[in-house]
Automatic annotation (TrEMBL), chain B:
Keyword field: Signal
Main location: other
Keyword Signal carried by entry: yes
Similarity section: Belongs to the bacterial solute-binding protein 2 family.
Name used for this protein in its record: Sugar ABC transporter substrate-binding protein
Entry-linked CDD domains: PBP1_galactofuranose_YtfQ-like
């Protein structure tokens, strides 16, 4: 019993529903949804829409963590790609803008991958380099100011919609489906888990662990770039100082809430996204509640602790023991 | 870059000596914090322009947000024998030693934008800063005057929790509206001084207050959050500037664009021109020995659509905000 890994997702789904219920209690209109300018509008939609950037980061991050790595640079990569997109938006056609931003994300991922897989630097150190330097690069691109744009094409990534669903949600959903198809409909997922479980044994067994490691960092860079584009499109500008700031921690938290171990191995992309939604549902609830902002972080910490305890095998063992004692 | 600055300095000083202006021989060193925000960049460029206006040789050292770099810069200014030192202190403590050295060398120090701890009070000539409580009060008074006797539910976007600017701007606003029982602060949350958070918080305010129909005004501790809030209101089908009054602080260029478009109502300026009054104080001190007051408060000017916002936008946008 104690060895059962929390992959079923029951604790996460329960936690998400519980937080939504609490939100509904603090704000009666929480589940009200209407159409506004052809786009769904409501607090529940906000949870998905605002959660999209962290969900995108979590999709990339969960694969990196599955290989026993970590990527601290995702927030900085967001800032770089957002800065590139916003700077080019008003002078270049949309395909060029998107290609440049995504290309920069892929390059950042490749850089991290090279440092980790080829040079053998510990992931936390290797990605720390880009975390620090990346924000500087973003500031260089924007010359330290908030670069605004008016291009409606790029703005679609933040304010547009697909059949009424906000564009960021649609983008995140597409990337999620694509990632799941890639890792679960092929042997990729198994190889990533093998790399994280025991890189040496996997390499001896013929798994290309080096290529696997590189690939997950590149994919993580790609997801971060998308998140950066969404964030820039949302405010119609690139804020190099603040875009994606500390979001790497939220992304890691989302992955952990989703039940993936930081020691690598088995992972769940869907639950990582659910983890991101749990974090955002909490944020939205706090904003709706009207509590003084001084409580924000405390409430967040308590909820995260409860969710993590719910997943802990020892803690559930203790609960079983207690319920047994009562009988 | 250095060569360019040197060249500019030489040109300025030659120009000045031929003109024989009073302040011509002054050389002033400025230890700037770094480029932490757009406002900082604007302060640096305005300082340069103000120095040029007065034919003062002006040397700027960028400390990249580190106190040790600022201390090094001050020591090097002392070694160069400048006539005065401007300092925008990155933190409030730890200046006593280096300021004593400046004092011993009889070089007056002027603090810009931020103050230091009381223990160092007699180590500097004067401090040129804005009063952030007053800024909040100006915003509150504008709102009180604009709504008159009508009942008004206000939502507030606070700065980062614990930042002194946020606390003060809240205090000033609260005091200003306290005597007007028709104005009520219904919601207050932090937007961390950023556009993205300002937008997110405003979205939730709109939903929590019945689709925003109950909101009469938004007060934001800085313009960036207001720019985000304006987007949130527009996306929710509200008309900021007409349905919902807005007042924020800082007077960055983008808010003037919004005011010009009729989407924002008022902003209170945190002037980037801290160096101007400081130059005047130093010149008066050097020429006539006039000792300035310990604190020179900059003006917290209110701007509305009546002040030709488009023109101000054009004049401000090149400053590096």
């Amino acid at each position: 019993m104690a060895l059962r890994l929390p992959r079923s997702g029951v604790p996460q789904v329960l936690a998400f529903l519980a937080i939504l219920a609490v939100n509904w209690m603090v704000s009666a209109q929480f589940f009200d949804i209407r159409f506004q300018d052809g786009r769904l509008f409501g607090s529940l939609i906000d949870v998905f829409n605002r959660g999209a950037p962290v969900a995108l980061l979590a999709i990339g991050m969960v694969l990196v963590i599955a290989t026993r790595g970590i990527d601290l640079s995702v927030g900085a990569v967001m800032a770089i790609c957002g800065a590139i997109a916003a700077t080019l938006a008003d002078t270049q056609p949309l395909p060029v803008v998107i290609a440049a931003a995504l290309g920069a994300g892929l390059l950042c991922g490749l850089w991290n991958g090279l440092l980790v897989a080829v040079l053998g630097i510990q992931p936390i150190i290797a990605t720390l380099i880009l975390m620090v330097a990346g924000r500087g690069i973003a500031q260089l691109i924007t010359e330290g100011r908030i670069v605004t744009f008016t291009s409606p094409d790029l703005a679609w990534f933040g304010g547009g919609s697909v059949l009424g669903v906000p564009a960021p949600v649609a983008i995140t959903f597409t990337v999620l489906v694509l990632t799941i198809l890639l890792v679960r409909r092929t042997a990729l997922g198994l190889m990533i888990e093998a790399t994280g479980g025991n890189a040496r044994a996997s390499a001896l067994a013929g798994v290309g662990t080096r290529v696997m490691t590189m690939a997950v960092y590149v994919w993580c860079g790609f997801c971060s770039a998308l998140a950066g584009i969404v964030a820039a499109a949302d405010i119609l500008g690139a804020d190099a100082n603040n875009s994606g700031l500390w979001l790497e921690l939220d992304a890691i938290l989302a992955v952990v809430i989703g039940g993936t171990s930081l020691f690598g191995g088995r992972f769940s992309v869907v639950l990582a996204v659910l983890g991101a939604l749990i974090i955002q549902a909490m944020n939205t609830g706090i904003l709706l509640s009207g509590y003084p902002p001084e409580f924000n972080l405390v409430v967040k910490a308590v909820v995260v602790l409860v969710v993590l305890l719910m997943q802990s095998p020892r803690f559930s063992g203790l609960a079983i023991l207690l319920s047994g004692a009562r009988k | 870059m250095k060569f360019k600055a040197l060249l500019a300095a030489t040109v300025v000083s030659t120009l000045a000596s031929t003109l024989g202006a009073q302040a011509a021989d002054l050389t002033i060193g400025f230890s700037q914090i770094g480029s932490e925000s757009g406002w900082r960049a604007a302060e640096t460029s305005v300082s340069k322009a103000e120095a040029k206006k007065r034919d003062i040789t002006f040397k700027i050292a960028d400390a990249q947000q580190k106190q040790e770099n600022q201390i090094k810069a001050i020591r090097s200014f002392i070694a160069q024998g400048v006539d005065a030192i401007f300092l925008a202190p990155v933190v409030a403590t730890g200046w006593d030693q280096v300021l004593k050295e400046a004092k011993e060398s009889k070089i007056p120090v002027v603090l810009l934008d931020r103050d230091i701890d009381a223990s160092g009070k007699d180590l500097y000539l004067t401090a040129v800063t804005s009063d952030s409580v007053h800024e909040g009060a100006v915003a509150g008074e504008w709102l009180a005057k604009t709504v008159g006797d009508k009942p008004c539910a206000v939502v507030e976007l606070q700065g980062t929790v614990g930042a002194s600017v946020a606390t003060n701007r809240k205090k000033g606003f609260d005091t200003a509206i306290a005597s007007h029982s028709n104005i009520k602060l219904v919601r207050s949350q932090t937007g961390d001084f950023t556009r993205a958070k300002g937008k997110e918080v405003m979205e939730s305010f709109i939903k929590a207050e019945g689709g925003g129909k109950n909101i009469c005004a938004v007060y934001a501790h800085n313009d960036d959050m207001m720019v985000g809030a304006i987007q949130a209101m527009k996306e929710a089908g509200l008309k900021p500037g007409t349905d919902v009054l807005t007042v924020s602080i800082d007077a960055v260029p983008d808010i003037f664009k919004a005011i010009a478009a009729g989407e924002a109502n008022a902003t209170v300026e945190l002037t980037p021109n801290m160096a101007g009054p400081a130059f005047d104080a130093v010149v008066a001190y050097k020429d006539k020995g006039t000792v300035p007051p310990k604190w020179i408060q900059t003006e917290s000017k209110l701007y509305t659509s009546a002040d030709d916002p488009q023109k101000i936008y054009e004049s401000k946008k090149g400053l590096g905000y």
